[in-house]
Design a protein that fits this description.
nine-stranded mixed beta sheet, 12 helices, binds beta-D-ribofuranose, binds calcium ion
Length: about 325
């Protein structure tokens, strides 16, 4: 009955290089989490590429998780991609076998897919969301009864400090802030890995990245795709490389690595100006709080990097 009590997870993502590492880390720990489904959403690159990348990864990593394709575009605005960071296909740099694209796509409606999976589950489901929150927001809006069977949502998105895609906004928040607003105010328990954590605390150094290629066959794949990403980040002057989405996965499967967090009411700007997608915590003591989100603020960085490395290396030991 151990397996029945396993933490059940659906991962909503837009691979994307750091999504790929996050999925790799998650699938390395079947003892901690049972990944039942992966859902895709347009984000880092267009949906078709994102879904193909998920097919490639699930095949390569030997997973049998179900795959469902989701929304191609955000709730309100046109999509903005990040192919300048993730490459044209979102995961350039490694030749996955042609037959990867035979990986079955169970549904082309991630929202109804998630609803059916969650509502029919004996146990509550955890969501890990590492992309614009379009699918998750539509799920919660269309089928509010689904909330009863969702345990927790672990999100990579937003920030309490700097932005990345704009001065003020983090990418996932910026692409679909209306979706983030719906999710933040859904009443569900949320743990947030924002840029204040992923860029400032949970980074990986270039020297550490150079060692990933020695971590077995998954290490070769991970380092091939990371080289392009790290190359971009260092070309814009970053010496500390964030693997943002791994934080959301690790906050679920190894929460003890995070050494500081604060519960904040978080807001996201929906304006059509330079503040669009900016997230900000309500730090006032006397205000009426809209929501309460666990914002991760620090991590044992060396243990975090070791966790990622050990996860990658574990594939050759199974
Ligand atoms: C987030 O945006 C995407 O480019 C990454 O995959 C990550 O989810 C970081 O801002
Ligand atoms: Ca992502």
């Amino acid at each position: 009955w151990g397996k029945d009590l396993m933490t059940k997870v659906i991962m909503d993502c837009d691979p994307g290089i750091d999504d790929a590492i996050a999925l790799t880390v998650l699938l390395a720990h079947p003892e901690k989490a049972d990944l039942i489904g992966v859902t895709t959403v347009g984000g880092n690159v267009q949906l078709d590429y994102v879904t193909q990348n998920a097919q490639k990864l699930l095949t390569f990593l030997g997973s049998h998780a179900e795959l469902a394709a989701g929304q191609a575009t955000p709730l309100v605005k046109e999509i903005q991609t990040a192919s300048h960071v993730h490459g044209k296909t979102g995961m350039d740099g490694y030749d996955f076998p042609e037959n990867s694209l035979d990986y079955p796509i169970k549904s082309h409606n991630a929202v109804t897919y998630m609803y059916n999976k969650i509502i029919n589950s004996d146990e509550k489901i955890n969501l890990v969301a590492t992309a614009p929150l379009t699918n998750v927001a539509l799920l919660l809006k269309t089928f509010p009864d689904v909330k009863e069977n969702i345990e927790h949502i672990y999100i990579m998105g937003g920030s309490t400090l700097q932005g990345n895609i704009t001065l003020a906004a983090e990418f996932n928040a910026y692409v679909d802030p209306e979706a983030m607003d719906i999710v933040f105010n859904s009443g569900l328990p949320i743990t947030l890995s924002g840029l204040n954590l992923t860029e400032n605390k949970a980074y990986v150094t270039m020297d550490e990245i150079s060692k990933i290629k020695d971590l077995g066959h998954v290490g070769v794949m991970a380092s091939s795709i990371l080289d392009i990403y790290a190359g971009h980040e260092s070309s814009i002057g970053m010496t500390k490389i964030p693997i943002h989405d791994a934080c959301a996965v690790i906050s679920l499967i190894a929460p003890e690595l995070f050494t500081k967090s604060t519960n904040y009411s978080m807001d996201v700007s929906l304006t059509n100006d330079q503040y669009r997608g900016m997230t900000y915590p309500d730090r006032r003591v006397d205000s009426e709080k809209k929501n309460s989100i666990k914002v991760l603020e620090d991590v044992d960085r060396e243990a975090f990097v070791k966790f990622i490395f050990d996860s990658i290396a574990s594939y050759d030991k199974k």
